[in-house]
UniProtKB/TrEMBL annotation, chain A:
Keyword Methyltransferase (UniProt): no
Gene3D superfamilies: Phosphatidylinositol 3-kinase Catalytic Subunit, Chain A, domain 1
Protein name from the UniProt record: Auxin-responsive protein
Region listing for Disordered, in residue ranges: 38-70
Example GO BP: auxin-activated signaling pathway
Record's subcellular location: Nucleus
Methyltransferase recorded as keyword: no
Function: Aux/IAA proteins are short-lived transcriptional factors that function as repressors of early auxin response genes at low auxin concentrations.
TrEMBL record, chain B:
Pfam annotation, one family: LRR_6
Record domain F-box: where: 23-64
Gene Ontology molecular function, alphabetical: auxin binding
GO annotation, cellular component aspect: nucleus; SCF ubiquitin ligase complex
Stated name of the protein: F-box domain-containing protein
GO biological process, one term: pollen maturation
Residue ranges the record marks as coiled coil: none
Amino acid sequence: MESIGVEEKGLNLEATELRLGLPGRDKIEKEIISSFNKNKRAAPKSAEDDGSEAKADTKHRDHEAAPAAKAQVIGWPPIRSYRKNNFAPKKAEAEYGNYVKVSMDGAPYLRKIDLKVYTGYKDLLQALENMFKLSIGVYSEREGYKGSEHAPTYEDKDGDWMLVGDVPWDMFMSSCKRLRIMKGSEARGLGCAV
Amino acid sequence: MDPVRKRTKDLSKSVDSAHLAPFPDEVLEKVLSLVKSHKDRSSVSLVCKDWYNADRWSRSKIFIGNCYSVSPEIVARRFPNIRSVTLKGKPRFSDFNLVPQNWGADIHSWLVVFAQVYPFLEELRLKRMVVSDESLEFLANSFPGFKVLSLLSCDGFSTDGLKAIATHCKNLTELDIQENGIDDLGGGWLSCFPETFVSLEVLNFASLNSDVTFDALERLVSRCKALRVLKVNKHISLEQIQKLLLRAPQLMEVGTGSFQQELVPRQFAELETAFGSCKNLHTLSGLWEASSVYLPVIYPACANLTYLNLSYATLQSDELSKLLPNCSNLRRLWVLDTVEDKGLEAVGSSCPLLEELRVFPADPFDQDMVHGVTESGFVAVSSGCRKLHYVLYFCRQMTNAAVATIVKNCPDFTHFRLCIMNPGQADYLTNDPMDEAFGAVVKTCTKLQRLAVSGLLTDKTFEYIGKYAKNLETLSVAFAGSSDRGMQSVMEGCPKLRKLEIRDCPFGNEALLSGLDKYESMRSLWMSACNLTMNGCRQLAKNMPRLNVEVIKDEESDDSEADKVYVYRSVVGPRRDAPPFVLTL
């Protein structure tokens, strides 16, 4: 039992560690295997174990298995590589939506939206207008969102703040890291021709 | 016309014996040649010397379940007239990446011997073997009468090897390439079949990834009038499959390409007609990216289908529910768990003749989303399909009560493979271990031959298995058991056990050694990530000289630990091609 407690501590640290990226990194993988190893190498129980002891174990196991379950074990579930490879690419696309944070100057908290559900800029801007109860106006290449108190901007892969609408939609989708709706004079500044 | 070798008549024998043989050897051989099953043939050969010899001379097909249990020389000496060879190599867990690369099971040394002894070899069926392009070329050039090549779950070759086969095997009737780890260097191999080549009956290249020249394929299909099985890969479009079906309406088994193509109504109608014109079609697979929009083109063929493989089509429950009422004749159905329980209810209500169901997970590593099938889907199928005897079921939750109901509905299970995907997961309603579920399976299903267990399991499960599973031949165990007692119960029971594969279980040396008397009657034992030590394995090897006890060493582990152990009987002793990381004790 003690060994399980020690593992619980170890696993919880891992589980609460802040990290970017999907679960299933190698380190966690090895943790899982070693956790099962440690479980096994604990003193063997007698054959007369009744259900209640197994239940207590279950609770322990469930508790420590919960964070553990979020990672992958080598060769488990037992599916042939061919079948796994057939789906992996498609799923990676479809399942994890393209969620980005949206901040609005002056708003107390941020929002999050899935860029994948929008068909283009018009759709997106409409949604932002609805979400934040404001009007953004129409985009023009020369003057940005002229006439509006607000300008939608985004941070791209390089860390630069860009005006929403300059690049083709697909390019925007893949390079947008977060959105920010600027207000007032700052907004007007971005819209001016350089 | 075929020069079959005959032994010289041993006349002195019949003169010396007190009475004449009951009937001439040739007649005995002829009668025995009608015995097809290799297990029966084995029994025949054990009756007496005459029958052993009759079997020897008349045997034309040989099945070798473990390529290391025997050598090609011994096979050649005993059976002079072999035309068809089936060979299996690596342990099954190599499919799940548990066996390192370069472990072995190379076909080449076998081919070299066969080329000398069986120049008239016609069929080679390999599973989990390593096959190089050189070997394929050697094969293509060594056996002029070669007809059947079937490669399942093999690796080591590329499409270049297939070029050699297509170019040189003038009498080829079957080319079946399934789920292999190969280098796909392009689809040019298909164009290597000469224009004069017309004998093909089976062509399966569904798992190859690159484009073949459609023109060449269409011409090939047109001129091979005896073609009955055609399974193309996902690069073949709907429009193209329609053309192929028109050329070969006699097809019995079809694997389509991708279903994702924009069709105008005329094309849709043409496809429907094409499927409808295949009157002999009983097996349908492929159907990549099939959606409700175009799936109905197969409806005209559905009434005759006995085997439908939808495991590459991410169908939802309503799509399956609309499709299945057309398929009342189904015996075998493979689906993805995207159909969910509701889809399985449709299976139960539409397919009363169903004998085999396989439900694969669309996203095996998905932890966050609650999708897939549960125990209720399985129960629904069992209540509508009373003839069910083969199931492979991947799910995320299960209960003891559900499994008890399932086997009560379907007591004739021969193959019960249940995979609860979260290792060591309990009955989600009661929090009990899943012992009683598998207890119910082995108690009720007296014909059970193959069992795969999962979920939270104590030694009790294995006590049940040892006590009740009298016909069990194959057992797969992962993340289960509490002590050596578990495995011991199985080794002491299960009289017909042939293959046992275990991973991540708390079974140690005592458990391993409890099977001392059993391993020679088994094909093999695999144990990985258990509690075995090198000393325990050495002890086994010392006591049982006719077993090969191989340990695959893991780089990071302790020297005394035996991480992966593979034990198998062999008449040829330790293998000579073992790589450095395989220690034979």
